[in-house]
Amino acid sequence: MAAKSEKKKKNNIFKGMLKELKKVTWPTKKELAVYSVVVIVAVIIFTIIVGIYDLGLSKLMELILSLGK
Fold first, then answer.
1. Domain count, the chain
2. Domain span holding position 25
3. Which of 13, 31, 43, 46 is in Cβ range 3.0-4.6 Å of 27 for a Cys bridge?
4. Considering only CA atoms, which of 17, 18, 36, 20 is closest in space to residue 28?
């Protein structure tokens, strides 16, 4: 008996999910392309910034360690 109620709960959850997904306003292909480009550009910029910080900090550590010799 408990197995049936569990199965019914799961079915209700999935039905609710499908109902909510039908309410979603999905982006158009053009919007999706624009959003994708924005994300890729942001990732590239962030990667460059982190790379510059990493390079600068590694050079600073080399300088500090060379002063101790």
1. 1
2. 2-67
3. 31
4. 36
Half-sphere exposure of 47 (CA within 13 A, CB side): 6
* CA–CA dist 51, 59 (Å, integer): 12
Per DSSP, the three-state class of 1 is coil
Task: Kindly provide the b/e burial profile for residues 27-48, where b requires at least 16 CB atoms within 10 angstroms of the residue's own CB.
Answer: eeeeeeeeeeeeeeeeeeeeee
DSSP character string of 2-68: HHHHHHHHHHHHHHHHHHHHHH--PPPHHHHHHHHHHHHHHHHHHHHHHHHHHHHHHHHHHHHHHHT
